[in-house]
C-alpha cells in the first residue's frame, strides 16, 4: 500500500502528524509535509534536514514545506502528483483553547473545504481526515461515571435530533466529515474520517490534559490544580495507537464514512493524576479542583465495534505504559526553568 507512494500529510509537524510521518516513512512512503508551524515544530520531525530554500527542507524520502493551506494556490501546488492525503492541519488545542478561541476554530471549515477541493481537482486517490470525538452530542456525555460508548451513528447529521457537536471546533469537524462524504458521493474520491479520542503521548503540548498534569507534577505544584471536579472521565488514547488506526482506515475505508479511534475504557482526571504522581515518584500534599476552568463533557468513551470489524484494530498500549513513555520523553525534552516561567500561558494555548 505505502511503498514508494507519494503521501501528503497536512499538519505533519504537529503532535499526531509527526508520529504519522514516522510510520509512513517506515512503510516506505515518499512523504510530503505541509505545515504553517502555528502549533507544529520542525523539531518534532527528528531527521537530519537539508534546507533547500526558504520554508522548505528535505531528508531522504521526506520533504517539509512551510505553507498556509488556506492559500488555495499553495494548496493546489502541494497536491501535485499526490496519491494519498492525510489531512490533520487545523487550528486546535485542548479544552482551554477551544473554549476561548471560537473564531480560530471556525476557520477550520474554510481550510478543510480548500484541502478537499484541491485534492479532488489534483486527482488525489484518497483522503483520510483527522476528525474528533468533539463531533458527538453533549447529551450522551453529561453523566459522570457513565458506561455509554459513543457509536459512529450517534453523530449522524442526517438523522433527526442526532447532530449536536461540541462547540465551534466540533461543528467544524462534523461539517468536514459531511463534505468528505459529499466528494465521495458526487465525484467518487475515496476517503474516510477518523474520530480521534483524547490522544496523548510524546511531542504533545501543555494545552492538553495529560501533558498539563505531567508539567505540574514535574514542577512539584502544591497545591496541585486539576481543572473541573476531577471526576470527569476520558478514554485517553496513546498516539501510537491513533496512528495505527489512521493508517488502517486509509487502507480499508473508501466510502467517506467515519470510524472511532479511542478506548472503550476510561479513567477520571483524578485517577490520571494519581498515575502521574506514581510514575514521577512524587505526591502533592494537597489537590485542588478548580471548577472555574474549562472542563468539557462529564464522560467520554468510544464504541469500537466498527474499528474492530473494519480495521481489526483496538488500542494496544495500556494507560500505565503510555503514561510512562510520555513522562520519559517529557523529562528528557523539557527545560524546567522555562516551564516554570511559561506554564500559565501554555495551559491555555497560543
3D structure, described in words:
This protein starts with 5 loop residues before the first strand and ends with a helix. The radius of gyration is 20 Å and the shape is globular. A hairpin with a 2-residue loop joins β3 (50-53) and β4 (56-59). It has 350 residues and is an alpha/beta fold. The mean pLDDT is 92. Helix content is 39%, strand content 19%. The strands form four sheets. The chain has a nine-stranded mixed sheet, with helices on both faces. The protein has a two-stranded parallel ribbon with strand order 9-12. Strands 10-15 form a two-stranded parallel ribbon. The relative contact order is 0.14.
Give the tags.
39% helix; 11 helices; 350 residues; alpha/beta; 19% strand; globular; two-stranded parallel ribbon; nine-stranded mixed sheet
Q: Quick one: biggest sheet? A: 9 strands, mixed
Count of extended strands: 15
> How far is the first residue's CA from the last residue's CA?
37 Å
Radius of gyration: 20 Å
Overall pLDDT confidence:
92
Could you give a quick summary of the protein structure above?
The protein has eleven helices and 15 strands. It has helices at 15-26, 72-78, 95-100, 102-121, 167-187, 209-218, 239-252, 269-280, 305-311, 319-333, 336-348, and strands spanning 6-10, 30-35, 50-53, 56-59, 62-66, 84-87, 126-132, 190-196, 199-200, 224-227, 233-234, 237-238, 255-261, 267-268, 287-290.
Produce the secondary structure layout.
Blueprint lengths: L5 E5 L4 H12 L3 E6 L14 E4 L2 E4 L2 E5 L5 H7 L5 E4 L7 H6 L1 H20 L4 E7 L34 H21 L2 E7 L2 E2 L8 H10 L5 E4 L5 E2 L2 E2 H14 L2 E7 L5 E2 H12 L6 E4 L14 H7 L7 H15 L2 H13 L2
Parallel strand pairs: 1-2, 1-6, 2-5, 6-7, 7-8, 8-13, 9-12, 10-15
Antiparallel strand pairs: 3-4, 4-5, 11-14
Helix pairs in contact: 1-7, 4-5, 6-8, 6-10, 6-11, 8-10
Amino acid at each position: 500500500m505505502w511503498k514508494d507512494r507519494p503521501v501528503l500529510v497536512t499538519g505533519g509537524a504537529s503532535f499526531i502528524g509527526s508520529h504519522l510521518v514516522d510510520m509512513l516513512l517506515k512503510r516506505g512512503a515518499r512523504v510530503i509535509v505541509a505545515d504553517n508551524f502555528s502549533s507544529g515544530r520542525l523539531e518534532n520531525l527528528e531527521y537530519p534536514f537539508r534546507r533547500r530554500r526558504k520554508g522548505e527542507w528535505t531528508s531522504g524520502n521526506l520533504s517539509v514545506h512551510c505553507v498556509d493551506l488556506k492559500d488555495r494556490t499553495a494548496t493546489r501546488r502541494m497536491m501535485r502528483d499526490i496519491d494519498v492525503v492525510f489531512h490533520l492541519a487545523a487550528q486546535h488545542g485542548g479544552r482551554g483553547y477551544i473554549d476561548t478561541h471560537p473564531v480560530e476554530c471556525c476557520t477550520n471549515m474554510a481550510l478543510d473545504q480548500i484541502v478537499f477541493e484541491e485534492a479532488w481537482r489534483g486527482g488525489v486517490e484518497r483522503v483520510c481526515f483527522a476528525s474528533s470525538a468533539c463531533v458527538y452530542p453533549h447529551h450522551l456525555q453529561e453523566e459522570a461515571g457513565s458506561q455509554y460508548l459513543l457509536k459512529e451513528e450517534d453523530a449522524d447529521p442526517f438523522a433527526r435530533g442526532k447532530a449536536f457537536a461540541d462547540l465551534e471546533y466540533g461543528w467544524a469537524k462534523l461539517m468536514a466529515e459531511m463534505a468528505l462524504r459529499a466528494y465521495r458521493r458526487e465525484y467518487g474520491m475515496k476517503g474516510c474520517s477518523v474520530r480521534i479520542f483524547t490522544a496523548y503521548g510524546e511531542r504533545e503540548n501543555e494545552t492538553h490534559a495529560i501533558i498539563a498534569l505531567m508539567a505540574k507534577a514535574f514542577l512539584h505544584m502544591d497545591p496541585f490544580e486539576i481543572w473541573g471536579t476531577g471526576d470527569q472521565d476520558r478514554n485517553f488514547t496513546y498516539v501510537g495507537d491513533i496512528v495505527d488506526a489512521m493508517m488502517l482506515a486509509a487502507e480499508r475505508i473508501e466510502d467517506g464514512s467515519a470510524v472511532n479511534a479511542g478506548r472503550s475504557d476510561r479513567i477520571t482526571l483524578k485517577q490520571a493524576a494519581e498515575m502521574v504522581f506514581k510514575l514521577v515518584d512524587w505526591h502533592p500534599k494537597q489537590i485542588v479542583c478548580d471548577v472555574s476552568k474549562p472542563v468539557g463533557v462529564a464522560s467520554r468513551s468510544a464504541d469500537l465495534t466498527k474499528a474492530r470489524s473494519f480495521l481489526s484494530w483496538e488500542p494496544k498500549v495500556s494507560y500505565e505504559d503510555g503514561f510512562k513513555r510520555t513522562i520519559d520523553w517529557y523529562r528528557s525534552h523539557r527545560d524546567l526553568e522555562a516551564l516554570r516561567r511559561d506554564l500559565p500561558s501554555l495551559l491555555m494555548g497560543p
